[in-house]
Amino acid sequence: MTDQVVETGDVRLTGHASGESRFLGRTRELKELRADIERAGLDTLAGRKPPRARVLLIAGRPGSGRTALAEELVRQVADRYPGGVLRARLSDPDGTPVPVGHTARELLAALDRQAPAGACEDDLTDALRTALADRRALLLLDDAADAEQVDALLPDTPDAWSSRSPRGR
User: Fold this and answer.
1) 19 Cβ contact partners less than 8 Å away, ≥ 6 residues apart
2) Entry pTM
3) Virtual CA dihedral for 115, 52, 150, 122, nearest 10 degrees?
């Protein structure tokens, strides 16, 4: 993967982060978030890896810097994800949730995958999960309206990570 950025609407696929950070402070939060990522991630009931991607939730009030914190975390850990980093904004600026099918289609395009012609939302999310199944990738899903919006986009692999930033209320 190179340092290229592929932009399609509000969805981007990037390679490894480069350059110096302009992010200041929040050292304790970043340390704790990195520790969460580095934990084994075992299913506490079964004692083995979970069947789906792990989700790291970064919550906060609007304007609290949760997106900047998530972006800095991604910058620090991106080199661990050879499948790249996918970023998607899940709400419009006015707070309206972006339809899951639209986000899935845009993520597929960012992965250079053709969306099935005339596909419904379920077909698009299935195609996305298939495209991500063999990739060790990190998804940054910003301004999520609810858990269902995120769940539909998660790959069925424990090697993927999703950092979710919920829409502030």
Assistant:
1) none
2) 0.75
3) 40
Q: pLDDT tens digits for 92-104? A: 989 899 999 999 9
CATH code of the domain containing 159: 3.40.50.300
Question: Which structural domain, as residue segments, surrounds residue 59?
Answer: 5-166
* Total domain count, the chain: 1
Q: How far apart are CA 131 and CA 117, in angstroms?
A: 16
pLDDT digits (tens, 9 = 90+) for 33-50: 888 877 766 555 555 566
Nearest to 145 by CA among 83, 79, 87, 97: 97
Among 165, 147, 140, 152, CA closest to 17:
140
